[in-house]
Design goal:
Helix 3 runs antiparallel to helix 7. Strand 3 and strand 4 form a beta hairpin. This protein folds into three domains: 112 residues; 92 residues, Alpha-Beta Plaits, CATH 3.30.70; 91 residues, no CATH class. It is built from ten helices and ten strands. With 342 residues, it is an alpha+beta fold.
């Protein structure tokens, strides 16, 4: 042990004796390591930021993860069970509470041809242009917000206001959002007349507050509908290291739902996320390449400075050999110098 300690102390002494040259080698190696660490961290941050921007740039209807059930409920299709299964499946993909919706097929209800729908928590999704938001929907009376069309509502429904959807996130293109209507309003009057001529006037679209209340009405019991559970994908959910897990979990959740009922489906922006992730990885690799070149230059400088230590190291090794120092101790001295410099 004394020989090892003596050899180690001599190696430390050699590094100190070389002074500035040893400091230059150590500084070059340290700078290269710090540069590589900074580039790795910077590339990860840049990739994360670029992916978040790509997710935010997706259309609202594309940026959503949507579980849906289509059909006419039978004895085994109780809404409470459908709701619980869908929310459990969505929780496998991303945290957060999904928004439940229902949209009935355009049909005659109590002698009125209308399109009916409901949302749990309607207020954040619509902009009221007149009147107020609906607050209650029961078997006897259902307040609704009219989004389009003209005419009287069916018996048992009361229009309390008019408004527009803020985005297509809830219903996709099935219900035009405010921006779609603004784009349509910018058309020249001649084109507006052409559109109206070739398209029949849509029936009134009425939205209620609360899916359960609307779905429980007797007049709609045998009407085809689509239940939806929508959660918006946040940029915080789309981390580069989470994309693969998110896509896999979405596929697993879809399989689990469809195993319970053929009416289920689940849609997630898997291809969009993979494409965005691939684009950001290319940018991160370019940044790593530039950083690697800088680190290589610094290591080259350190290697050049290390060559200036070769002559005194050889002279020291020759003196130790003449003094009868064993080979293993001489090698240990050189190894100690190398470790201290790196």
């Amino acid at each position: 042990m004394r020989r090892v300690a003596t050899t180690l102390a001599f190696g430390v002494h050699r590094v100190r004796a070389d002074g500035l040259r040893s400091a230059l080698v150590a500084a070059g190696v340290a700078a290269a390591g710090l540069l590589l660490a900074a580039v790795l961290l910077g590339s990860l941050v840049a990739q994360e930021r670029a992916l978040a921007d790509s997710v935010d740039a997706l259309a609202p209807s594309t940026r959503t993860i949507r579980a849906a059930w289509f059909g006419v409920p039978g004895q085994g299709d109780v809404y409470s069970d459908l709701d619980a299964r869908s929310k459990t499946a969505l929780s496998m993909i991303t945290p957060g509470s999904p928004t439940a919706t229902v949209l009935f097929r355009e049909s005659s209800v109590e002698g009125r041809f209308v399109s009916l729908g409901a949302v749990d928590g309607l207020a954040p999704w619509v902009r009221v242009t007149s009147g107020r938001l609906p607050t209650t929907c029961t078997r006897s009376l259902c307040e609704v917000l009219q989004l389009r069309g003209q005419g009287s509502p069916p018996t048992g429904f009361v229009v309390v206001g008019r408004g527009v959807l803020r985005s297509t996130a809830l219903f996709g293109d099935a219900v035009p959002a405010e921006r779609n209507q603004l784009d349509r309003a910018r058309l020249a009057p001649r084109f507006q007349r052409v559109v109206r001529y070739h398209q029949p006037a849509p029936p009134p679209l009425l939205l209620a507050e609360g899916v359960r209340g609307l779905a429980a009405r007797d007049a709609l019991a045998s009407t085809y509908r689509s239940y939806g559970w929508v959660t918006q994908l946040r940029s915080a959910d789309a981390r580069p290291w989470l994309i693969d897990d998110l896509v896999v979990n979405a596929g697993r959740a879809r399989t689990e739902l469809q195993g319970r009922s053929v009416g289920y489906d689940l849609v997630a922006p898997a291809e969009e996320l993979r494409s965005a992730s691939a684009r950001t990885e290319v940018g991160a690799r370019r940044l790593l390449l530039l950083g690697g070149q800088g680190a290589a230059l610094l290591l080259g400088f350190a290697a050049f400075a290390a060559t200036r230590l070769r002559r005194p190291t050889r002279a020291s090794d020759r003196r130790l050999s003449l003094l009868g120092v064993p080979l293993w101790q001489r090698c240990f001295v050189v190894a100690t110098q190398a470790v201290l410099l790196t």
